[in-house]
Amino acid sequence: MRGERRGVGVTTRIIVGVVVLTALGLVFSAVVAGIVHQRVVHARVDQALSQEVAELRTLAQEGRDAEGERFATLEHLLFEALRRNVPDHHEDFLVLIDGQIPFVASWEPRFTDREVQALAASASRIAPDTAPQLADLDHEGRRIRYVAVPVRVAGDPSQGVFVAAVDLDAEYDEATGMHRAYAVSAGLALLVVGVVSTLLLWRQLRPLRRLAATAERITEEDLSERIPEQGADDLARLTRTVNGMLDRLDRAFRDQRALLDDVGHELRTPLTIVSGHLEMMDATDPDDVAETRVLCLDELDRMSRLVDELVLLARSARPDFVDLRPTDIDDVVTGVLDRVRPLADRTWGIDATSGAVIDVDPNRLTQALLQLTSNAIRHTAEGDRIALGAVRSGDEVEVWVRDTGPGVPPEDQDAIFERFQRGSAPSGSGSGLGLSIVAAIAEAHGGRVDYRGMPGAGATFVISIPAQSTQAAPGVGPDRSEMSGHSDRTLEESS
Fold first, then answer.
1. Rounded CA gap, 26 and 131, in Å?
2. Which of 179, 129, 199 is nearest to 159 (CA)?
3. Are residues 283 and 430 in the same domain?
4. Domains of the chain: total
5. Is the domain of 156 the same as that of 282?
6. Continuous H helices in 167-220
7. Which of 28-42, 305-319, 429-443 reaches the highest mean pLDDT?
8. Is the pLDDT reported for residue 426 higher than 50?
9. pTM here?
10. CATH number reported for the structural domain that contains residue 53 in this entry
11. Which residue would you say has higher pLDDT here, 442 or 206?
12. Structural domain containing residue 394
């Protein structure tokens, strides 16, 4: 079996990406800094050369040397210019008179003889009586920036050129130390970025690692594991989303297992009864055949109702289980009362009206109230009272069905809304799913169903629904004290 191929982790990819982007940014900065530095050097060199030209012009305009003697010859003027001006560290001066080089001045020997001759040859091409010219000379790999100034003295037929030249390579080399320091600092910066980004990512991606570890520990039998929630950032929201998904999966798996257990347990009984009676039936006895047929049909009808109820409970977790729309709650209550009156000889009535119009599924709410009234009929006797009612209570609307029967025994009250809980009372017949269906309908509306009552004093089942879009309606009924006190007043009554 081939081993699982492991790719590069997300953390590694992010760190490499951050370091690479940082390196590219540092390189870009270095390139820009180099270009700017080169321009600065050129500007500084040109300024220095322009200053030399200005000093030579000033000297020529004065027309006298330091002792006050007038310049009678070109050689005298140029010699005095070299004597007064001291070349900078990377600068050389040279003088051309009629194509010859009588003087060269420098801070220290900077250019070779061949370079001096190349400078002289280039500068000698300048025409007399023209403006000074700035030019570059690249001689055998060395870059030189120079200015050539034509010079003449009245009364002297000689033609001269004053040349100031700067070694650009030497000027650039002064930045080598700065570049080396930049490279070292850039390397340290990359190291710091890598270490810090690793620590930050390790901390920030900790919920993802916990998510992976939790997902590996989750099995079909145990979905209780959850990821600790910390903070309020995107990863925290992801954690809450995943935990919510696990909650829904846990409920779905529990409902699925409960459904399978319920089906396996509850459907086995009618199937066993049908199978047993068919095996024991005497096919030659018409009376036995007819009796068996009635019993089998009755069991099959019970099985069909049970399947329908189980399917209804299974669908209750779906988002389309209820179709919410503005509904007059009092109309639902009176409609249910009209439908159940003929079902049993009871004293029927309405305790209170709410005057509320809220968003509910009227068909599902009617189904829940019919289930509760059917349950009340089953646990009451002829002449007992069964009443419905509704009232607004804060942000909720409460709808109830109460009866004057024996109530629910204390030992059964904690489990009456669970599936297949028929109670210990003698009248505890049926599938045991009725109250579970009521609870499912209430929860689908975002509400709940509660039992309120005392043993021997009747039972009251209250469905509480959030009152979204509540509107006032005329004829608001009594407050909930009338419900809790089991008032004998009724708006409609029959016996």
1. 44
2. 129
3. no
4. 3
5. no
6. 168-173, 176-204, 206-217
7. 28-42
8. no
9. 0.48
10. 3.30.450
11. 442
12. 325-494
Residue 155 DSSP SS3: coil
Burial (Cβ within 10 Å: 0-12, 13-18, ≥19) of residue 297 = exposed
Strands of the sheet with 100-106, listed across from one edge: 100-106, 91-97, 160-167, 142-151, 133-139
* Ordered alpha helix ranges (H), 63-164: 74-84, 113-123
Closest CA relative to residue 355, chosen from 334, 395, 328, 382: 328
The answer to whether residues 264 and 293 belong to one domain is: yes
Q: Return the bridge partners of 348, or none.
A: 386, 494
Query: Nearest-CA neighbor of 162 among 171, 153, 172?
Result: 153
Residue-level pLDDT at 373: 92
> Is residue 196 situated within a structural domain?
no
Q: Which two structure tokens, joined as six digits, stand for 141?
A: 């790999």
What are the tens digits of pLDDT across the range 388-400? 999 998 889 999 9
Query: What is the distance between the alpha carbons of residues 254 and 275, in angstroms, rounded to a whole number?
Result: 31
Concatenating the DSSP letter of every residue in 408-440 gives --GGGTTTTTSTT---SSTT--S-S-HHHHHHH
What does the pLDDT look like over 341-381, one tens digit per residue? 988 899 999 999 888 899 999 999 998 999 899 989 988 99
Residue 1's identity, in one-letter code, is: M
What is the rounded CA–CA span in Å between residue 236 and residue 228? 9
Instruction: Report yes or no: 424 and 412 within 8 Å, Cβ to Cβ.
Output: yes
**Is residue 362 assigned to a domain?**
yes
149 within 8 A of 174, measured Cβ to Cβ? no
66-123 residue pLDDT tens: 788 888 888 888 888 888 887 887 888 888 888 888 888 877 777 888 888 888 888 8
What single letter denotes the amino acid at residue 404? T
> Distance between CA 402 and CA 453 in Å, rounded?
9
Task: Using the predicted structure, report yes or no on whether residue 316 has a pLDDT greater than 60.
Answer: yes
Q: Count of alpha carbons within 13 Å of 268, Cβ hemisphere only?
A: 6
Within a domain: 204: no
Which of 315, 338, 359 corresponds to the end of one domain?
315
Q: Tell me the CATH number at 333.
A: 3.30.565.10
Residues 329, 427, single domain; the answer is: yes
Residues 87 and 232 in one domain: no
Phi, psi of 166 (to 5 degrees): -120, 135
Given 282, 315, 348, the domain boundary residue is 315
Tokens of 208: 């993802």
Which tokens hold the place of 408?
């629910």
Quick check: 267 and 303 in contact, CB under 8 A? yes
